[in-house]
Q: What sequence folds into this?
């Protein structure tokens, strides 16, 4: 992705490998942030989960995000094999599911504000975890949007689909974070 | 000049716009919530807006934005001296930017320390009131921590590390520039804190003090400053890890890396992961202040005031030290690297037990994540945790001891060349041994319960950070000065600086152990009269140590303009950074270097070309 | 990575999502059936498996793993090969 800003690389690994490695390290870093977030739940409210938590909503959000990971994967495979039509279709599908997810979180917040506002222990954790996660989802939607607009006229072929891979990887990462947040927020019980 | 400064001015304008948008947005937001007591929501979003505007204006648009929006990239680099004031993506420029910024911040925070010592010269109140003292103390602390983290990991790693591994630049030059330009907002925020009531929490910002509803807004600014700084640290860590993995010159195998490179690699792992924890800690503070969340305040208490449910301030201490203990190894690991590097070159011997030093570095990284709670022995943390954390903390002494022995082993039977860098490196070995030994008393629960929060702790960490790291930084500044500037510093002034700093540093902080053992509290402006005499003595020594910075500052500034031309390799050192011109050309090396042997092959027959491929250096001149 | 055929890659995605769905159902069942530390531990384990699937199959984890393995291996073996530490000390 880095256009040869200064000079071509005369040595070492190629740019693609470096970019992949850099993104991975950034994900490792961000993962430790989520680790901190999740561990604070067990510190502040232990295993307490109020009755009023909407299990249906939690499960729905989870399914939505997992399925969006599949469509994101399919978009990447399509880009890798130069399948323009499917690439576009799946990127759009993924983005829509992301937006739907954000809407779901918004609804969740609306409900949560009545039952456990931020001034309660569980509310503190719920708003923080979902807030940080939703910010990630939002950034993922933006990234996919960029990819879509750059790629809709066939900018990414089998040899240079790294930006697609990167955006999709970010999307999967957000999904992985939710895989841990879901049981943390909804499923554990005293 | 003005045209050259235009990007900077543009960035300031953008940050004003961003700040205004953030402020307006926040003002709209708070009208929906019931009673907005203070301006903290507005300050927060205004800052976020201003930061984004600043980064956008300084280079994000030019280097990323245009590409994203499919515009033609605009890559005309600024030349000449004004590139130091621009979003340059040359790692050498960025290294100099970091180093100069950090030296200035160091001198500034040093001046604050002088103010503190004036106040502490006797037990009564003389210069500042309690709030002012606390603000000065907290500012001194956090600025020095920033200097300690970023001088090596930002300055030296940027300037010399790519040269040392024979690369043309770091892996992500644009990101590298970004991580430097995140730093000025940090400095600005910190300097602004006194105008927002200061902040009285110390650099550790423990709640409930830092989340107190009637506390000054300065604490919020401080939290944002630290948070922003953390971002820079994370990006830097990532960049150096990839650089070391991916950009080594042909033949520069892992086993041939100069030891400094290994130490940066190890420290970068810590900045990459641990920093996120302090970020979360600060975000919790910000959220609790602005939205009334309950991370640290119990939601229910019993009659005796003990929290029954909800948050607890110990959460912050855990999260904070889960970063800040490893962070002391972000500071000291590369300092170990510098120390070994310089001792090796100035004794003309390879680093002793190189392999074991590398292993020790990684052992330290691993263990440093397991010891954080030794800062919580008196905080009311579970008693059953005391033993394990004491044990693991003391285990760290083993790898640390290996590094120490390697320094001694490198010197063993060497012919030392006692120039200023070497003198500082030797002083660091001496100082750090005192710092490390006093750490054992603090790691030991029984003694720590008495010593916690006294001047003993203050003396301990100044021995490790100043005596250890800052001395190593000084050594490195003198060592690479000719490479960075192309000119030689003044040796006499350098030695005067060394003598003054070494002597008065030790006198100041050795003396400081005494009031500490006798129980004098840290972070107080006024103290019992019994400590008057000893503190007066400490203050005098501290002023003398401050005076020793004058020859340093003068030497650094003056020699840059008027120093003798240094030549490419004044130390006749063997590592790659000395095999190019001083200062190096934009592409670092005329030809792509190729490496055939280890970094410290002094005193062995040089059969083929080596890490010094181009020329055979003349033998070292006498002293 | 482009070595495998497109249909194979797509099939793999389908398998993964099916397993993820099953695991999510198990998760939900655990939460309904159990409480306390045991439930939390089991939930943690299931979440780890789900995450591992996504990381390995969707995110191409081996890109990172190769480097971790390399650095680890080299670290254990780091030695400035032709400059034994103690050449001078022996003299
Ligand atoms: C053998 C090595 C070390 C041991 C056993 C050790 C142990 C400790 C302990 C137990 C404390 C807590 C004292 C208290 O608050 O009661 C402490 C404080 C501190 N140490 Fe160390 N330490 C070691 C090395 C270092 C190094 C290498 C650095 C920095 C480069 C460092 C910097 C600090 C700082 C900054 C504090 C005070 C933090 C604060 O409360 O503001 N230490 N040390
Ligand atoms: Cu510590």
A:
């Amino acid at each position: 992705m880095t256009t040869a800003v200064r000079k071509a690389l005369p040595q070492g690994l190629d740019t693609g490998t470096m970019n992949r490695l850099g993104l991975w390290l950034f994900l490792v870093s961000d993962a430790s942030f989520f680790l901190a977030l999740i561990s604070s739940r067990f510190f502040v409210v232990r295993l307490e989960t109020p009755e009023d938590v909407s299990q249906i909503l939690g499960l729905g959000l989870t399914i939505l995000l997992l399925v969006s990971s599949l469509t994101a994967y399919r978009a990447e495979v399509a880009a890798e094999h130069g399948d323009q039509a499917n690439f576009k279709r799946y990127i759009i599908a993924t983005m829509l599911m992301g937006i739907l997810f954000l809407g779901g979180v918004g609804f969740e917040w609306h409900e949560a504000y009545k039952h456990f506002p931020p001034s309660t222990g569980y509310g503190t954790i719920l708003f923080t975890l979902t807030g940080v996660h939703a910010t990630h989802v939002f950034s993922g939607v933006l990234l996919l949007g960029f990819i879509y607009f750059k790629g809709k006229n066939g900018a990414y072929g089998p040899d240079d689909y790294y930006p697609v891979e990167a955006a999709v990887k970010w999307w999967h990462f957000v999904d992985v974070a939710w895989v841990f947040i879901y049981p943390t927020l909804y499923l554990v019980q005293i | 000049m003005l045209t050259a400064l235009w990007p900077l001015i543009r960035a300031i304008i953008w940050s004003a716009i961003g700040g205004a948008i953030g402020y307006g947005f926040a003002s709209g937001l708070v009208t929906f919530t019931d009673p907005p007591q203070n301006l903290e929501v507005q300050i927060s979003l205004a800052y976020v807006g201003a930061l984004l505007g600043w980064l956008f204006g300084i280079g994000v648009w030019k280097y990323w934005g245009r590409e994203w929006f499919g515009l033609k990239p605009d890559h005309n680099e600024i030349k000449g001296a004004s590139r130091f004031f621009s979003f340059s993506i040359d790692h050498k420029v960025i290294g100099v930017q970091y180093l100069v910024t950090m030296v200035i911040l160091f001198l500034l925070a040093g001046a604050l320390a002088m103010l503190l010592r004036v106040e502490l010269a006797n037990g009564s109140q003389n210069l500042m009131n309690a709030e002012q003292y606390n603000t000065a103390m907290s500012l001194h602390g956090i600025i020095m921590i920033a200097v300690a983290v970023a001088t090596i990991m930002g300055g030296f790693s940027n300037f010399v590390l790519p040269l040392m591994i024979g690369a043309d630049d770091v892996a992500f030059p644009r990101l590298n520039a970004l991580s430097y330009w995140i730093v000025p907002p940090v400095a600005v925020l910190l300097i602004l804190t006194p105008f927002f009531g200061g902040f009285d929490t110390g650099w550790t910002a423990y709640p409930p003090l830092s989340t107190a509803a009637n506390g000054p807004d300065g604490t919020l600014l401080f939290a944002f400053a630290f948070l922003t700084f953390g971002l820079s640290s994370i990006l830097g860590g990532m960049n150096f890890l990839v650089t070391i993995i991916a950009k080594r010159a042909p033949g520069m195998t892992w086993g041939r890396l100069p030891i400094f490179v290994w130490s940066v690699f190890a420290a970068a792992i810590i900045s990459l992961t641990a920093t996120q924890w302090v970020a979360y800690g600060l975000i919790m503070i910000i959220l609790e202040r602005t939205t009334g969340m309950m991370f640290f305040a119990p939601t229910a208490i019993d009659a005796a005031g003990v929290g029954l449910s909800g948050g607890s301030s110990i959460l912050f201490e855990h999260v904070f030290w889960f970063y800040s203990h490893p962070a002391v190894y972000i500071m000291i690991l590369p300092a170990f690297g510098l120390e070994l590097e310089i001792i090796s070159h100035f004794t003309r011997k390879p680093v002793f037990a190189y392999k074991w030093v590398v292993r020790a570095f990684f052992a330290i990284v691993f263990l440093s994540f397991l010891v954080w709670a030794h800062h919580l022995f008196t905080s009311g943390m579970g008693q059953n945790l005391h033993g394990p954390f004491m044990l693991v903390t003391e285990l760290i002494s083993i790898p640390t001891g290996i590094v120490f022995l390697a320094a001694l082993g490198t010197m063993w039977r060497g012919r030392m060349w006692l120039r200023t860098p070497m003198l500082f490196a030797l002083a660091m070995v001496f100082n750090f041994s005192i710092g490390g030994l006093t750490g054992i008393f603090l790691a030991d629960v029984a003694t720590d319960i008495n010593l916690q929060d006294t001047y003993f702790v203050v003396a301990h960490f100044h021995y490790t950070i100043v005596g250890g790291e800052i001395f190593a930084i000084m050594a490195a500044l003198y060592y690479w000065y000719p490479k960075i500037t192309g000119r030689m510093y003044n040796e006499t002034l350098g030695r005067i600086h060394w003598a003054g700093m070494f002597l008065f540093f030790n006198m100041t902080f050795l003396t400081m152990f005494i009031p500490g053992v006798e129980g004098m509290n840290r972070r107080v402006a006024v103290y019992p009269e019994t400590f008057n005499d000893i503190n007066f003595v400490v203050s005098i020594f501290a002023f003398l140590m401050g005076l020793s910075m004058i020859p340093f500052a003068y030497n650094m500034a003056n020699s840059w303009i008027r120093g003798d031309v240094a030549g490419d390799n004044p130390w006749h050192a063997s590592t790659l950074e000395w095999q190019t011109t001083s200062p190096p050309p934009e592409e670092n090396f005329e030809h792509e270097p190729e490496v055939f042997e280890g970094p410290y092959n002094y005193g062995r027959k040089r059969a083929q070309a080596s890490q010094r491929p181009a020329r055979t250096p003349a033998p070292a001149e006498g002293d | 990575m482009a070595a495998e055929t497109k249909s194979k890659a797509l099939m793999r995605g389908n398998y993964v999502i099916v397993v993820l769905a099953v695991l999510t159902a198990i998760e939900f069942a655990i939460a309904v059936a159990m409480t306390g530390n045991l439930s939390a531990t089991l939930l943690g384990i299931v979440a780890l498996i789900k995450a591992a699937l996504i990381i390995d199959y969707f995110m191409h984890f081996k890109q990172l793993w190769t480097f971790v393995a390399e650095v680890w291996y080299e670290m254990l073996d780091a030695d400035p090969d032709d400059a034994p530490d103690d050449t001078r000390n022996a003299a």
In short: Chain B has two domains: 1-68, 88-298+310-592+594-612. Chain B touches chain A through 56 residues (CB under 8 Å).
